[in-house]
Amino acid sequence: MMNGEQTGVVSVYVTFPAGFAADDVVRDVVSEKLAACGNIVSGVTSIYRWEGRIERDPETIAILKTTADRAEALVNRLREAHPFEVPCIVAWPVSGGFPPYLDWVREETRG
After folding, report:
1. List of residues 6+ apart from 81 with CB closer than 8 A
2. CA–CA dist 49, 42 (Å, integer)
3. What angle do CA 40, 43, 46 make, to 5 degrees?
4. Is pTM, for the whole model, over 0.70?
5. Who has the most CB within 10 Å: 3, 67, 69, 73?
């Protein structure tokens, strides 16, 4: 399925402050079948404007794989667990990929 059709799979991108227990949050959402898996990337630097100032902070990224029907619950769960007032949590549909992997994501998130 590499032709741009919708797969029903969604990637969710979230950043956490460095030192926050992102591993625990990702483990929880996988355990709860809200995500099939999550990749954690430590050691990134975010530069952003907040309350009129340019900020520069170390952060950790998590990229989670889920299905369209589980994405809203995943985003809500991430929001509950997140320490930021306005966390970066965004989602986008996966329009193609390796069919056995996409099947695995759908199977692992079945409620």
Report:
1. 25, 28
2. 21
3. 100
4. yes
5. 67
Distances (CA, A) of 88 to 17, 19, 85, 104: 11, 16, 10, 26
Top CATH class, 9-108: alpha beta
Q: Where are the domains of the chain?
A: 9-108
Whole-number Å distance between alpha carbons of 55 and 69: 35
Please report the pLDDT score of residue 94 as a whole number.
96
Cβ count within 10 A of residue 61: 18
Q: Alpha-carbon distance 23 to 81, whole Å?
A: 12
Q: Residue 71: pLDDT above 90?
A: yes
Q: Name the residue among 15, 35, 44 with its Cα closest to residue 94.
A: 35
CA-based torsion, 61, 28, 90, 80: positive or negative: negative
Q: Say which residue the tokens 């996409």 belong to.
A: 102
